[in-house]
Amino acid sequence: MIKFIQNIGKKTLAFIRILGANVLFLLKIFALLPQVVLRPRLMVRQMYFSGVLSVLIIAVSGLFVGMVLGLQGYTQLAKFKSADVLGFMVAAALLRELGPVLAAILFASSAGGAMTSEIGLMKTTEQLEAMNVMAINPVARVVAPRFWAGVLSMPLLASIFNVSGIWGGYLVGVEWLGLDAGVFWSHMQKSMTFQYDVLNGLIKSFIFGMAVSLIAVYQGFHCRPTAEGILRASTRTVVSSALTVLALDFILTAFMFTE
């Protein structure tokens, strides 16, 4: 029993230690923001790799999620003869929850893992040490642009996911199942609000982007400089990001959508 309690205490202290290290790393990145702003070319280049190259998987995934929502929603609403609100149901589910959450998890599995592997490879090949020798701060040159690129890309990717998902719901509800297009769009426009639905979803995606990007760059910067170390760091990035996004989603939903 005592050993069990000791193990719980060790894991708890290790979690607090890692959380504190991540917070200190985040503060260091925030302190270097002026340098990133003065050299926007690095951040724009990283936005291409982390954002633009993720558009296809985000858009296709959003399309199929919206189609599934449209099909299941129409099936359930038809039982109560209220299928006219299908557009509102699809939009609400995507804008409030599924869009930011699923887009963040997909971003973590693609761009987040790539960021970790890239920084880890630079550490393994001693490129980061070479920057220190040349009096170049590797956090400012390598880490900060990737972090802010991920933060800025995440709301845009979540918006693409939402638009694609709503279009998927329209294709199933209107084009396939025969729901009136005017009814589909009118109920959506009448029931959705910018501040409550759209803005809160964008705030969620921005916070998710910060969390995923921080985990990705932290794991890459602090991984062991071996092939196995990079592999483990990439795996931790994806798993930790998914769990963090789900936990943050619960906390943010409790503040945003409950009265």
TrEMBL record:
Bilayer disposition of the protein: Multi-pass membrane protein
Keyword check for Cell wall biogenesis/degradation: no
Subcellular location: Cell inner membrane
Protein origin, superkingdom: Bacteria
Molecular-function GO term, any one: phospholipid transporter activity
GO cellular component: ATP-binding cassette (ABC) transporter complex
Pfam families tied to this protein: MlaE
Main location class: membrane
Transmembrane segments: 12-36, 48-71, 167-186, 198-218, 238-257
Keyword Nucleotide-binding: no
InterPro entries hit by this protein: ABC_MlaE_roteobac (IPR003453), MlaE_Permease (IPR053408), Permease_MalE (IPR030802)
Keywords: Cell inner membrane, Cell membrane, Membrane, Transmembrane, Transmembrane helix, Transport
Function text: Part of the ABC transporter complex MlaFEDB, which is involved in a phospholipid transport pathway that maintains lipid asymmetry in the outer membrane by retrograde trafficking of phospholipids from the outer membrane to the inner membrane. Probably responsible for the translocation of the substrate across the membrane.
Similarity annotation: Belongs to the MlaE permease family.
Subunit structure: The complex is composed of two ATP-binding proteins (MlaF), two transmembrane proteins (MlaE), two cytoplasmic solute-binding proteins (MlaB) and six periplasmic solute-binding proteins (MlaD).
Identification of the protein by name: Intermembrane phospholipid transport system permease protein MlaE
Organism of derivation: Alysiella crassa
